[in-house]
Amino acid sequence: MNIERADFPAVLHADGPDPERAGVLKLYGRFVGDWDAEIIAHAPDGTSHRTLGEIHFGWVLQGRAVQDVWMIPRLSDRPTAPQFPIAGNWYGTTLRVYDPTIDAWRIYWIDPARSVFRQQIGRSRGEDIVQEGRTESGELSRWSFTEITDNSFHWLGEAKPPEAAEWRLVVEVKARRRR
Question: How many CB atoms lie within 10 A of CB 126?
Fold first, then answer.
């Protein structure tokens, strides 16, 4: 039996958005490319820690989804980098798929090294993008893209225990597009 095997990266990646949904896919599609990032982790006691990371976004699944990879620390620093306090070292991926049945994006974050798995719903809120869901422990989670330009964005990772009145900023990322 001679079955031609497809090249996995070739069947996963796409050159651009699905033309039938190109307009709505711009919400996350504008991030496609490579980004350098400064990550700031905030502890409940008010201390914070900074490190460098990188983010890569691309079109996948015949241009019907946007997938990314977020790394803390940067790939080139991974062999010798210590564990990043509070947030830990990330090497995870997000699959972002627009769902017309709810007029929103279904977000799936997977970080197998830290056993962190999140599902969220993402929508534009004014000039920002806000994703909301719950953590494995039941806390509310909110991830927001703010201050979005063609070459930068500010990402906020917030958590809120069910009994808390206020959201707590856990991690923020200041990203700049690579030239």
Answer: 7
Q: Which CATH class is domain 8-177?
A: mainly beta
SS3 127: coil
- Torsion angle (degrees, nearest 10) of CA 68, 73, 76, 79: -120
pTM over 0.85: yes
- Read off the pLDDT of residues 29-81 as tens digits, 9 standing for 90 and up: 999 999 999 999 999 999 999 999 999 999 999 999 999 999 998 888 887 88
pLDDT in tens, 128-145: 999 999 988 899 999 999
CA distance 165 to 18: 41
Whether 5 has a pLDDT exceeding 90, the answer reads: no
Token pair of 133 as six digits = 């869901």
CB neighbourhood size of 99 (10 A): 10
Lookup: tokens for 112: 């197998």
Q: What is the pLDDT of residues 17-33, one digit of tens each?
A: 999 999 999 999 999 99
Contact at 8 Å (CB) between 67 and 108? no
Q: Where are the domains of the chain?
A: 8-177
